[in-house]
Amino acid sequence: MGVFDVGFIAVLGAFAYAFYENHNKTKIKLQQSSASRDELRQQIEQLKQRVATLETIVTDKSYQLKHEINKL
Q1: Nearest CA to 15 among 26, 23, 25, 3?
Q2: Distances 57 to 36, 43, 52, 67, 70 between C-alpha atoms, Å
Q3: How far is CA 70 from the centre of its chain?
Q4: What is the spatial distance between Cα 15 and Cα 3, in angstroms, rounded to a whole number?
Q5: Per-residue confidence of the chain (72 residues) as pLDDT tens digits?
Q6: HEC profile for the chain?
Q7: 63 near 57, Cβ under 8 Å?
Q8: Residue 7's CB: how many other CB atoms inside 10 A?
Q9: Residue 59 in contact with residue 65, Cβ under 8 Å?
Q10: How many CA atoms lie within 13 A of 23 on its CB side?
């Protein structure tokens, strides 16, 4: 095995290691992104429920009457 063969194997090993490290970092980011996405979906559902409750309150006849009385 010559000097060039050893150098080529060393460079090839360095590229393989760099690829492996990059792969692990990407996998960790994807896992964190997935958790964040699930948390955001949960928050959106909670906000939808709150908006539905507010719509129910605002469209209630007694609320509209109170608003009209307060406006006078």
Answers
A1: 23
A2: 32, 21, 9, 12, 16
A3: 44
A4: 19
A5: 788 888 899 999 999 999 999 999 998 888 888 878 888 999 999 999 999 998 888 887 777 777 777 887
A6: CCHHHHHHHHHHHHHHHHHHHHHHHHHHHHHHHHHHHHHHHHHHHHHHHHHHHHHHHHCCHHHHHHHHHHHC
A7: yes
A8: 10
A9: no
A10: 6
Residue whose pair of structure tokens reads 């393989």 in the numeric block: 16
Instruction: Look at the block and give the residue holding tokens 């906000």.
Output: 47
User: Tokens representing 71?
Assistant: 């406006």
Q: The tokens 């605002």 sit on which residue?
A: 58
* pTM for the whole structure: 0.50
